[in-house]
TrEMBL record:
<comment type="similarity">
    <text>Belongs to the glycosyl hydrolase 100 family.</text>
</comment>
<dbReference type="GO" id="GO:0005987">
    <property type="term" value="P:sucrose catabolic process"/>
</dbReference>
<dbReference type="InterPro" id="IPR024746">
    <property type="entry name" value="Glyco_hydro_100"/>
</dbReference>
<keyword id="KW-0326">Glycosidase</keyword>
<dbReference type="GO" id="GO:0004575">
    <property type="term" value="F:sucrose alpha-glucosidase activity"/>
</dbReference>
<dbReference type="Pfam" id="PF12899">
    <property type="entry name" value="Glyco_hydro_100"/>
</dbReference>
<dbReference type="InterPro" id="IPR008928">
    <property type="entry name" value="6-hairpin_glycosidase_sf"/>
</dbReference>
<protein>
    <recommendedName>
        <fullName>Alkaline/neutral invertase</fullName>
        <ecNumber>3.2.1.26</ecNumber>
    </recommendedName>
</protein>
<dbReference type="InterPro" id="IPR012341">
    <property type="entry name" value="6hp_glycosidase-like_sf"/>
</dbReference>
<comment type="function">
    <text>Invertase that cleaves sucrose into glucose and fructose.</text>
</comment>
<keyword id="KW-0119">Carbohydrate metabolism</keyword>
<dbReference type="GO" id="GO:0033926">
    <property type="term" value="F:endo-alpha-N-acetylgalactosaminidase activity"/>
</dbReference>
<keyword id="KW-0378">Hydrolase</keyword>
<dbReference type="GO" id="GO:0009507">
    <property type="term" value="C:chloroplast"/>
</dbReference>
């Protein structure tokens, strides 16, 4: 036993380091004990061979095989790290490890870091250790011989091959087995960097030979995974994700000799193991981000930074750890994102102007301009940032600009994006070519734009926010994520939020059918599809982004329903999904009008389909947990919005007041807003 321990300690003698120009970087408190790390060890034995790239060797005693997760404080502890530092992990390879073989009757005690993650004291041991018939206790649970973590009376199977789909005596899929399978798949998707969990890959589809970038960690894709881990009390992986992606924010980004503005978050990143310079026997792990320069279409991700801010607030709300958002580098990261979004431009509207494909719909689908999804995330991120920004002299101007934008954005969306039967009839009767300050048809929308499908489709009760608004153009398609997140963030009023859910119920057969939820409705078809998508073979009608059905949207639907105290809608949608999602192997999306087919190019075992389902189930079980995602209207903003409504020429036609003034107080800052009425 002593020989074995000494051999292990020799292996664990070197650890992860930061390569940085900062002379103080070496003094960081890493919270990493040397006995908890293996630096890229390659073990060759008669029956077993495993390669370790900066994995964590979480062992205590070979007879008991207790596994302990890395430190309680994630990668950086409570220290502040310069956001300009380049993270990499120096690794060394060892061909043999004296005293540790698979012939000692104990199995192989090396841990693949990509398979180690705690769940309330229990480790996911799938494909990590070979147990034979050994039984062992792990934390509060007991690890049985079949590889299941046993917590009290319940047992969570962790053998991916043995899990499959559980069926009861009547040959029906059981809900518990679906959840167990989902957790197992989510744990198996975890990516590790320098021994710590850092995110989840987009998909782990063994049937696909063309990986593309589905083996990377996407910012937007990780959000439901992060929320699922937070709801289970697993905070380290979310903390590590937040801090590491923050480091990537400041990387120099160029494409064709052009660099985008500072503050841009990557769409995704990949952990790569590369040879160490000057030493062929050693390797290091590096994070390789993609800011859009390698993406299909070369589109920068506008939503990444917005989702990052939303997740940061959720982490603080759920964990109670506000030290992360209070760090200087995190505060700087928030400000960089805000300055990028609030920078002056040529646009006359408070909405963000973006290119096609800059969000979840990341291919050409005619959403360039001011898509609702971006505006809803923008509004939510502004509210979250306003809550988290530390009050200091350097933030006063930014907070003032942020508050002004919130008021203007909420007014703009609620007034001009909203559509219901009454508003549709108003548009149908619009006069055009109005040149005046108090024009009713401000954007010169032609009544002929009202499509026949919309006249038939719009219900008597209910309404929604349209997909896009530009001069002489209204995109009347229903976009699920934008509408749902408008409910969650409070961008939609209480009445509008209920009307959105009313519409989903009224149009259930169109939006949910056999699998929730349509990403948009209806599909672009015929010549319209050819012109707008460029005849995109992946976005054919009723497929992928062109009105395909995406199971991951279950979690946004659930949060929206919980906020409006209508959880029965989400429960009904989850019940629909449970009938087949596990049997279909957790596809990325579904095709056809009723979502009857698995998408023709859909990846199986798509991580955010898995995580979206789990988050929906967890939130329905504990609706109060949704508070970490929900933002309520600030009374100050409500007051400001009311003043704007009373000054709106559409409601006060012909008013002659020269101006109206109102004041919004925010902390020590008094914001004076003046609106001129023609």
């Amino acid at each position: 036993m002593m020989g074995t321990s000494e051999a292990a300690l020799q292996i664990l003698s070197s650890g992860c380091r930061i390569l940085s120009s900062d002379p103080y970087a070496s003094n960081l408190d890493w919270k990493f004990a040397s006995k908890f790390h293996i630096n890229c060890v390659k073990k060759r034995a008669l029956r077993h061979k495993q390669l370790f790239n900066c994995s964590s060797f979480l062992q205590n005693q070979i007879g008991i095989q207790r596994l302990k997760m890395i430190g309680d404080y994630g990668l950086f502890g409570n220290t502040s790290v310069d956001s300009l530092q380049l993270l990499s992990c120096k690794c060394q390879q060892s061909e043999t490890v004296g005293g540790l073989t698979s012939e000692d009757g104990k199995g192989t005690w090396f841990v693949d870091s990509a398979r180690v993650l705690h769940f309330n004291g229990a480790v996911n041991p799938t494909n990590v250790l070979e147990f034979g018939n050994v039984q062992q206790k792990q934390g509060n649970g007991e690890l049985t011989s079949n590889g299941a973590v046993k917590q009290g009376k319940e047992s969570l199977p962790t053998d991916g091959g043995a899990l499959g789909i559980g069926r009861d005596a009547s040959n029906k899929v059981t809900v518990d087995s679906i959840e167990d399978e989902a957790w197992n798949l989510l744990l198996n998707s975890v990516v590790y960097y320098c021994g710590s969990p850092i995110g989840t890959i987009a998909a782990n589809d063994p049937t696909s030979s063309n990986v593309l970038n589905y083996d990377q960690v996407f910012i937007r894709d990780f959000i439901p995974s992060g929320i699922a881990f937070l709801l289970k009390g697993e905070y380290d992986i979310v903390r590590n994700f937040i801090l590491h992606t923050l480091q990537l924010q400041s990387w120099e980004k160029t494409m064709d000799c052009h660099s985008p503005g500072q503050g841009l978050m990557p769409a995704s990143f990949k952990v790569r193991t590369v040879p160490l310079d000057g030493d062929d026997s050693s390797t290091e792990e590096v994070l390789d981000p993609d800011f859009g320069e390698a993406a299909i279409g070369r589109v920068a991700p506008v939503d990444s930074g917005l989702w990052w801010i939303i997740l940061l607030r959720a982490y603080g709300k759920c964990s109670g750890d506000l030290s992360v958002q209070e760090r200087i580098d995190v505060q700087t990261g928030i400000k960089m994102i805000l300055r990028l979004c609030l920078s002056d431009g040529f646009d006359m509207f408070p909405t963000l102007l973006v290119t096609d494909g800059s969000c979840m719909i990341d291919r050409r689908m005619g959403i360039h301009g001011h898509p609702l999804e971006i505006q809803a995330l923008f509004y939510s991120a502004l509210l979250c940032a306003r809550e988290m920004l530390a009050p200091e002299d350097g933030s006063a101007d930014l907070i003032r600009a942020l508050t002004n934008r919130l008021v203007a954005l909420s007014f703009h969306i609620r007034e001009y994006y909203w559509i219901d039967l009454r508003k549709l009839n108003e548009i149908y009767r619009y006069k055009t070519e109005e040149y005046s300050y108090d024009a009713v048809n401000k954007f010169n929308i032609y009544p002929d734009q009202v499509s026949p499908w919309l006249v038939k489709w719009i219900p008597n009760q209910g309404g929604y926010l349209i997909g896009n608004l530009q001069p002489a153009h209204m995109d009347f398609r229903f976009f699920s994520l934008g509408n749902l997140w408008s409910v969650v963030s409070g961008l939609a009023t209480t009445e509008q939020s209920h009307a959105i859910l009313d519409l989903i119920e009224a149009k259930w057969i169109d939006l949910v059918a056999d699998m929730p939820l349509k990403i948009c409705y209806p599909a672009l078809e015929g010549q319209e599809w050819q012109i707008i998508t460029g005849s995109d073979p992946k976005n054919t009608p009723w497929s992928y982004h062109n009105a395909g059905s995406w199971p991951t949207l279950l979690w946004q639907l659930t949060v929206a329903c919980i906020k409006m105290n209508r959880p029965e809608i989400a429960a009904r949608a989850i019940e629909v999904a449970e009938r087949r999602i596990s049997w279909d192997k957790w596809p990325e999306y579904y095709d056809t009008k009723r979502a009857r087919f698995i998408g023709k190019q859909a990846r199986l075992f798509q991580t955010w389909s898995i995580a979206g389902y789990l988050v929906a189930k967890l939130l329905l079980a504990d609706p109060s947990a949704a508070k970490m995602l929900i933002t309520e209207e600030d009374p100050e903003l409500v007051n400001a919005f009311s003043c704007m409504i009373s000054a709106n020429p559409r409601r006060q036609r012909g008013r002659k007041n020269s101006k109206q003034t109102y004041i919004v107080d925010h902390g020590d800052c008094s914001l004076l807003h003046t609106f001129y009425i023609g």
